[in-house]
Amino acid sequence: MQSTPRANRLHIAIFGRRNAGKSSLINAITNQPIALVSDIPGTTTDPVFKSMELLPLGPVVFIDTAGIDDEGEIGRLRVQKTKEIVERTDLAILIFTDENDYRLEKEWYQMLVKRHINVIGVINKIDDHFLDIEPLLMEFDIPFVKVSSKKLININTLKMAIQTYAPTEFERSSLLGDLIKPKDLVILVAPQDIQAPKGRLILPQAQVIRDILDNHACSLTVSVQELEHVLTMLNQKPDLVVTDSQVFKQVNDILPSDIPLTSFSILMARQKGDLAAFIQGAEAIDSLKPGDSILIAEACTHHALLGDIGREKLPAWLTQKVGGELDITMNVGNEFPENLSKYKLIIHCGGCMFNRKQMMSRVVQSGQSQIPITNYGVAIAHIHDMLDRVTELVKTS
Ligand SMILES: Nc1nc2c(ncn2[C@@H]2O[C@H](COP(=O)(O)OP(=O)(O)OP(=O)(O)O)[C@@H](O)[C@H]2O)c(=O)[nH]1
Ligand code: SF4
Ligand SMILES: [Mg+2]
Question: What residues does each domain of the chain span?
Fold first, then answer.
């Protein structure tokens, strides 16, 4: 179960008012006391994630959330956090309680449907009271399942509904399985410079190595300084080289042109984003002028160090290319500006901590605002005039 990173799992989020039984439901589905249950409204304050294998669907992560009707200053912040969960939700469970007025549920339902998220309605607490489902069927065009989370009634029916309504268009489970064959040799260039975390590889590198092993191919990981040496040592050419995009230029200079080359962030873009949109978005770099506003977005708050790619290297390359200073805004984490109109370009990190839904919600938002979007690897390759080389293999797959 630990083999699937959380970001690659189908995200199933449970929404509903305080005390609706969201935490009880997650405990019932997972058959474990993961989430705190109490009759005090507002018990769940922050999202709770639980990864599990839901057969035959596969790896999923359930997300318990704070009540959508939470009040007061802190309550509103909690509702905001729950709204951020919507951005990464693949399938939503909306719990209905015995309210006469379903305006709030309707608001959330519309928010989910607008994002093309399938919704399953759950009527909870059927052991305790009867809820007339007829008015709900008129108002909401979704399947309903009646359950008791406390007495574990109909939980299997709900699991079957989850299988049925889970989206079929889900991210590729393999990062490069379609690019390699068993026994192929893949060289990974992973600079272990000052920014590399002490004692471990970063998530995209670990994921690619795992994927190569899963596909019964062979991986050889080197720093850029050792690349030339290792190529002379081998008695065959590598079938593929995957590099950190920060050292694209050095790797391109060393590597014979007939060896396919790509980067970790380009593989990520295929899995989580829209590579074609990113390639097209990178063209906007050519029409940038000094003073133009650019948004650089990173999905997680990794600790920025000297020579950081988003804060230093990328701005420096762009400034050099444009021939003057740009107005660069850095956006870090789950929040994303609603109004993008002032930006001429959005450049996103690889998004290894995001799931496909989250990354695609940003791609869709930028498309709706008609602002080009690209990612680090694609932008860096474009700046160094090597985009064709590093996307040749992946574009045809
Ligand atoms: N009778 C009955 N009570 C239930 C059921 N599900 C939950 N409850 C009770 O309802 C209360 C609230 O349950 P929670 O699971 O904590 O509800 P929640 O939606 O997570 O609430 P918040 O975290 O406050 O938003 C608890 O007292 C539960 O025991 C059910 O199926 N039947
Ligand atoms: S989410 Fe983005 S910023 Fe964070 S480690 Fe992954 S690629 Fe880097
Ligand atoms: Mg709760």
Answer: 6-165, 185-266, 274-388
